[in-house]
Amino acid sequence: MSIRIQSMSVDTTNPADLARFWQAALGWRITEEDPDEVVLEPPAGSREDDVVPDILFLKVPEEKAGKNRLHLDLRPEDQAAEVARLEALGARRVNVGQGSDVTWVVLADPHGNEFCVLRALTEQELAAR
Asked: For the whole model, what pTM was predicted?
């Protein structure tokens, strides 16, 4: 089968504001922007470019309500440093029932969309890839 995911869409009351948070968080680029939608893509020429789905931020009239049905899991090299950086950008820690014994940190972006920051891969896990 020849099919791939082109983009993931995020509903928001302010596409430009939320796209700028994720642009800073991921180091991606805004490739299209108007008042009703903003497209965020991986850096041009990166290994993710034309491989990883774009993120499309779409304007909707209503605020977010309830827990996301789809969220991003981010895998940094240094979890603690990345969580601190994302919190400085405006993310906040949230509890979605994950408990205290998990290896990931659950954050919400400035509009309340939950995402996880996973632990770094071990040397053995990296070698096995």
From this structure: 0.90
Question: Domains in the chain and their CATH numbers?
Answer: 1-63 (3.10.180.10), 65-129 (3.10.180.10)
123's tokens: 């040397």
pLDDT in tens, 47-68: 999 899 999 999 999 999 988 8
9/14 Cα distance (integer angstroms): 13
**Region of 125 on the Ramachandran plot (φ > 0 left; ψ -120 to 50 alpha; else beta):** alpha
Helix (H) or strand (E) holding 38: strand 37-41
Amino acid making up residue 30 = I
With residue 82 as reference, give the H or E element that holds it: helix 79-89
What is the C-alpha to C-alpha distance for residues 118 and 72, in angstroms, rounded to an integer?
10
Count of Cβ atoms closer than 10 Å to residue 2 Cβ: 3
